[in-house]
Amino acid sequence: MHPNIHQLYQIANKPSRKILGLMSGTSMDGLDIALCEITGGGLNTKVQLLQFATVVYDNNMKEQILSVFSKETVALEKLTLLNAWIATQYAKMVNETLHTWNIPITDIDLIASHGQTIYHAPKSLHPHDEFENATLQIGDGDHIAVKTGIITISDFRQKHIAAGGEGAPLALFGDYLLCADAIENRLLLNIGGIANYTYLPANAKLNEVCSTDTGPGNTMMDAYMRKHYQKPYDKDGAIAQEGNINSVLLNKLLEEAFFALEIPKTIGPELFNIAFVEKALLATGLTQMKVPDIMATLALFTATTIVDAIHKWVPANENFTLYTSGGGMHNPVIMQHLKKLMPTIQIESSEKMGIPPDAKEALLFAVLANEAVAGAPMLAGNNATKLPVTMGKISFPN
Known about the structure:
It contains 13 helices and 12 strands. The chain is of the alpha/beta class. The protein has 2 domains: about 5-170 and about 360-395, Nucleotidyltransferase, domain 5 (2-Layer Sandwich); about 180-355, Nucleotidyltransferase, domain 5, CATH 3.30.420. The strands form 2 sheets. Strands 1, 2, 3, 4, 5, 6 and 12 form a 7-stranded mixed β-sheet that branches. The chain has a 5-stranded mixed β-sheet with strand order 9-8-7-10-11, with helices on both faces. A hairpin with a 5-residue loop joins strand 1 (about 15-25) and strand 2. The longest helix is centred in the first third of the chain and has 26 residues, at about 75-100.
C-alpha cells in the first residue's frame, strides 16, 4: 500500500479527526479558518469547534481576485497564475494561523479547502445549449498540501455537478447532519454574497430537505460600497439607513426571470452585480438616483427575495424557526426587513444551535471532508443530485 494511502486509511479509522475548514466566499473579505474536531460520520457526526479566525485579505489579494472574478472574459495567463498563487496564500495563512494558535502542523489530520469561486454558470444562466451546469473554484489543493504538509481535500463542487446538481448550495449536507431536529422545523439562512437557505422539516430524511439559493445577499451592496466609498461593505447598514426605498426600482429588480425558476436553484454575481442594477435604473429612468437610496432599495430587495423563496417551498401555515449566519446577518437593515416580512417567525442566530455564524461555512466544509474519508456517499435533498455522492479531491503533501 502506498504510504499516503496508508496514512489516509489511518486517519479514516481514528475515533476523531482534527480538520481545518477553509472558506472564502463571494464577498472576498478574507479566509475563514475553522479548526474542528469531528467524531464519527454520517448521521453520527459530532463536531466541536476548537478555534476560529478570519484572515482579512489585504488590498492586493482582493484586487488579484477581482481581476478574474465573475468576468466573462479574463486573461488566461492571469487565471492560470492565480490558481496556484491563491493556494499559496492560503497555505501561508494556515501556517501562520496555526503558529498563532500554538498548534503544531502534525496535530492536523486534514485541510478542507473550498477555494475561491470565480465563475458560477448554472444552465439557467448561460445560453449554450450544448453545455450543462458548471462552476469554477481556484486555489489548487496540491499547492496547499505541499506547502502545509497536510493532506488537503478541495474542489468539492465538481462532483455535485457531475452527479446532476448545480454545484451549490453544498450547505445542505452539513446542515442536515448537524442541525436537523426531531421536533423543530428549522430554516437555516446564510446571507453571504449570495443568499441561500436549507429547510429542515422536523424529523426529516435527507431526501426531504431543500437547499437553494434565493438571489442576492450582500454582493451588489458590497460592489456599490467598493465603487463609491472604497469600503468592503456597508458596516451596520449605515449607508442604507441614510437612503429612501424606491418602489419603482424595487419592482423592476423583482421582474428578473431567475425568481420565477423552480426551487432548488443557484445563481451568483455573474447575474447580480452593478450592471444588473444599472440596467434597471436605465429602464426606469432613475439614472440620477442617489447611492444611499440605491443601497436602501437593495437591502429590501435582498430581504424580499429571501422571503419569496422561502414561501415558494415552505407551506404558508407551517411554523419554523429561522437561524441566520453569514455577513448579511450583521446588517440591521436587512434583518429588520426580514422581521417585518415574516412577523410570526422566530429569528435566531445559528449560535443558538452551537454553531458560530461567522464560522458556519468553513465548519460545513470540514464536515464534507470528514465525509469524504470517514462517511458514505449521500444523495442531495430534493434530488438535487441524481445519485449519492462523496465530494472533494484528495491532495497529498508528497
